[in-house]
Each structure stands twice: as structure tokens, then as C-alpha cells.
Amino acid sequence: MNDFLTTRIQEKMGTFSKGQRLIANYIMEHYDKVAFMTASRLGTTVGVSESTVVRFATEIGYAGYPELQRAMQEMIRSKLTIVQRMEVTRERIGQNDILDAVLNQDSDIIRRTMEYTSHQDFYMAVDAILTSRKVYILGARSCQALASFLSYYCGLLLEDVMLVQATSEAEIFQQLIHINAQDVVIGISFPRYSRKAAKAMQFAHNCGAKVIAITDTAVSPLAQYADYALLARSDIAAIVDSLVAPLSLIDALIVTLSLKKENSMDKTFDRLENIWEEYHVYEKVDNTAEDDAKNADA
Hints:
Layout: H1 3-12, H2 18-34, H3 39-46, H4 50-59, H5 65-77, H6 82-93, H7 98-116, H8 119-130, E1 135-139, H9 144-157, E2 161-163, H10 169-175, E3 184-188, H11 195-206, E4 210-215, E5 228-231, E6 235-237, E7 240-242, H12 244-260, H13 262-278, H14 288-297
Parallel strand pairs: 1-2, 1-3, 3-4, 4-5
Antiparallel strand pairs: 6-7
Helix pairs in contact: 3-4, 9-12
């Protein structure tokens, strides 16, 4: 269990009321279940009132029960197996509409990310990218999609960008072999954290490169090697990780880079548009039929 949570409970155990001791003991033994229980349900489970649960959370140093619950969720997400994730998801959604539940969860994650991430680190990371010689981007497992997305747009904006293929540790180090203090490495990983990504960030840090971690908490294995930690909340959605907040953060990163380079990018994008037109990269859509149908309905 989280060291802070364990320590606080043990330090306060002697001062707890009978009801608070029941809560404390249940958390110590079943923290993986408590992490996804409401205050009301936890109170019912151990035989105390919801208000007693809320007071317990503040007693051990949290602003309220939601903060205590999030601390436990973040602590266990990297340890849950896929089977356990499915069990958690079934329990959380219950009889609610699945689509609404997932979309509401994602909306809440983005909101919490806005309150959580460091604006200072964000803009310092942008400056580091813009002044670098080369940008390396790495994301393993489910985060490969995020890395590929970021790499695609950075490739349009910057002169030298490499999407690091994370198939094996040996291949990662081979691709990073020429990295130096003039370079930037952007590593992306969320629970369950990729060991390969963490080792790559450590290697880049040891080589003197600027390291940017896009991850979920300051205690993430990637964040400990980062000069700039861009923190986005994520959550469990059955067998998948909810990565809408990291993607939104990456969107903001790309938009900021493009606006910072706005004056120098006009010619580049004009040339790209001409190339796309000449080689028929994009399918042209004829809206005539759709417009005719709308006019007929009117």
C-alpha cells in the first residue's frame, strides 16, 4: 500500500474512534476493493455512517474521501491484472448505461488533468523541443498510438524527429545511440508502466538529453528521470486504459508548437498542400449531392 497512507493510518490508530478503527482495518486488508468504493458503500460494508468515512479521510491527512480514494486508485492501477480490471469496471458501472458511464468518466479525467498538470513544465517543455537538435519520441504498448500521433505532427513542424520503435530494449538503445545534450526525448507511459520506456528515459537522462515525460503522476517510473513532467490523469476502462486526457495534453502540445512556429511554417504548409494536391493524397469529397438533398428537404 502507499507508504504515506499506511504511515498515517498506523500513526493515528491509537486516536481513532471504534468506527474509524473498523474503516482503517478494512482499508489495510482490502485497499484494492476500497479504491473503487463510494464513501457510502464503504460505510455500509464496515457498519459505520458515510459521515464517519468522510471524517476518517480528513483525519489521516486528505482533503476528503475523493482524494483518499484517488490516492488508492493511483496506487493499485499499475498492479491490476486484466481480469481484475474487468471486475473493477463491472462493479463501477453496475446497472448504468455503459456508453454514458465511460464518456462521463473521460470528461472527469480531462477536468482533473486541467487542475493537475503544471503549466510551467508544459511551456518549458515546448521551449526545450523548439531549441533541440533532434526530438526522439517513445511510447510502448498502448502508448505507441500516442507516440505515433505526436510524432506525425511533430514531423510536420520540426526538422528532425524520430519515432523510436519500442520492440525490444536492444533496438531502443540502438536508436538512441547518438543522443546528446542537444536533444530531447519525449517518453509516454501510463499504468501499467512500460519497463522499456523507463529504461530508455534513464539512458537519455544519463546521456545529458532533456527528458520530457508524459505520464500520470510524479512518482511514475518515467517522471523520476524527467526534466519536465507533463502529468495527465488516466483511468481504467475494463481491458483498456482511458488515454483521452494524455491525448488532449498532446493536442495542446502540438497546437502550442505550431503557434510558436507560425511565422516559419507558412511556406512549409503551402508546399505540403501542393504536394498533397499533385499526388492525390486526399480523396476529394463532392458535397453537391448532400447539398441538393438538404435543399430538397427545405
